[in-house]
Specification:
By secondary structure, the protein is mostly helical. 72% of the residues lie in helices and 1% in strands. The protein is built from 17 helices and 2 strands. Strands 1-2 form a two-stranded parallel ribbon. Helix 4 (80-88) runs antiparallel to helix 5, helix 6 (134-151) runs antiparallel to helix 13 and helix 7 (153-182) runs parallel beside helix 9 (228-257). The chain starts with a strand and ends with a strand. InterPro entries: AA-permease/SLC12A_dom (IPR004841), APC_superfamily (IPR050367). This is Amino acid permease/ SLC12A domain-containing protein.
């Protein structure tokens, strides 16, 4: 790649490894798994929920390995847009950037909707006959998100980490209390399985992987992290391992605390609340919803930060309007990109007000997942290509290639599993909507190639972040 640089001010490196880790862990939002996501995994796998999470952890680590290698070679805000674009051409990069922006924005939208659910459930659990209107909540919540993201990325990353850590501590304490009440840590049911039972792990693992999405988002802050070539690869690889171990342990403990009632746990809309009923402490439900609300805020904040950095990078490379590449003179944040991201999140949330919140949460979360899995697949393949192009030794080249191919195969399986058999309406429409959005992006690529072809060449010849 050429050493050509942008002459306009860019982002400054002010973040340490703590803030970078906060970005990734908050985007994963470990609290969402025990409060909501775990029910689907238990419904598929039953007593094999915890092995499903361990296998998913291994699969995500393979993808994370390729991401870490690419992050070391390309420490840019554009991250996935540039990882894939520099390996497979500007069209692939543009599609990857658009897919990842939509993934982060729709993750943010889903957790904003989830936060509204948690808030009203918390108020109800506290005995308060108050219902916050969704349209008002979405507006206020998004405005607060936008303010923190615009004001200071270091503050927003630290806040996201603190809130997520607090919610994880609360949730873990509740689960441990339920296990202590149960009276034992050993559950023979969860260790007695045979080869026939292992057939349940495949479908469960496909959904379990969705609990990890966002682990890579520290890469989007690479231009703002001190020594990104060292810290970002480590964080990207460590986050799915830390999160995966938490998921596996918490799944085991929740099944144990439920009295091995996997049927109830797999069909529950509020699994932790159902478990705490066995303790006879009704006020714990309010505590759980409060923890989930804090986690939703931290995840939405991390999602907005990540999406805005990709929009910013695409603006710097003129794949979108150049104003998106501007940086605020005082706060050092990509304020126009943040504004666009927050506006999209708010508009979609408000458009979904007529729908049942749980339905809207499911639609937007599923839509986001397509972007993540597609880009993860592309990154794994890019890692394999660069292993042959830049591998310094035969051993390192072999390791990077084998792990990259393994990650690509797992992501291809997850993508296939999310499409076939076709899900029920309206989830069966979401893949087509996602594909249609990529066709629109491809159309914009044709416009750029026709009018300003030199812009497309910049992805591989210049460093504009």
């Amino acid at each position: 790649m050429s050493e050509s640089k942008s002459t306009t001010p860019g982002l400054s490196a002010t973040l340490g490894p703590v803030e970078a880790f906060g970005q990734s862990i908050a985007n994963v939002s470990p609290t969402f798994t025990p409060t909501l996501n775990i029910t689907v995994v238990v419904a598929f796998a039953g007593f094999l929920a915890w092995p499903s999470y361990l296998i998913a952890t291994l699969g995500l680590f393979l993808v994370a390995w390729s991401m870490g290698t690419l992050a070391r070679r390309h420490p840019t805000s554009g991250s996935f847009f540039l990882y894939i674009g520099r390996n497979f051409g500007p069209l692939s990069g543009m599609l990857a950037g658009a897919a990842m922006i939509s993934a982060y924005l729709f993750t943010g939208i889903a957790v904003i909707i989830g936060a509204g659910i948690f808030l009203n459930n918390m108020l109800e659990a506290m005995g308060l006959a108050v219902h916050v209107p969704h349209y008002l909540f979405y507006a206020v919540f998004t405005a607060i998100l936008g303010y923190f993201a615009y004001r200071d990325v270091k503050l927003s990353s630290r806040l996201a980490l603190i809130l997520e850590a607090l919610s994880v501590v609360i949730i873990t304490a509740v689960v441990i209390a339920a296990v202590v009440h149960h009276g034992t840590l050993i559950d023979p049911q969860q260790f007695s399985f045979n080869l026939a039972d292992m057939s349940k792990v495949g479908p469960a693992m496909a959904f379990a992987i969705f609990s990890f999405v966002g682990f890579e988002s520290a890469a989007t802050l690479s231009k703002e992290i001190k020594d990104p070539s060292r810290s970002v690869p480590f964080i990207i690889r460590a986050t799915p391992v830390v999160a995966g171990l938490f998921f596996a342990v918490i799944a085991y403990l929740m099944i144990l605390a439920s009295g091995d009632n996997v049927k109830l746990l797999g069909s529950s809309a509020a699994p932790l609340v159902d478990i705490t009923r066995s303790l006879g402490v009704t006020w714990l439900a309010a505590v759980i919803y409060a923890a989930a609300f804090l986690a939703a805020f931290s995840c939405a904040l991390a999602s907005l930060n990540a999406a805005s950095r990709l929009i910013y990078s695409m603006g710097r490379y003129r794949f979108v309007h150049s104003s998106m590449g501007a940086v605020h003179a005082n706060h050092g944040t990509p304020h126009f990109a943040l504004g666009v991201g927050a506006a999209v999140m708010l508009v979609v949330c408000e458009a979904l007000v007529p729908a049942a919140p749980l339905n809207a949460f499911g639609w937007t979360g599923t839509y986001a997942a397509f972007g993540f899995v597609l880009v993860y697949l592309g990154v794994a393949l890019a890692g394999v290509r660069e292993a042959f192009q830049f591998g310094t030794t035969g051993t390192r080249k072999a390791v990077d290639s084998v792990l990259g191919i393994g990650g690509a195969l797992i992501m291809a399986y997850v993508l296939y599993g999310s499409l076939y058999p076709a899900p029920a309406y309206p989830f069966n429409l979401l893949p087509y909507l996602f594909a249609a959005s990529l066709l629109v992006v491809a159309g914009w690529y044709v416009v750029l190639k026709t009018r300003v072809p030199q812009v497309l060449a910049g992805i591989s010849t210049m460093d504009l972040d």
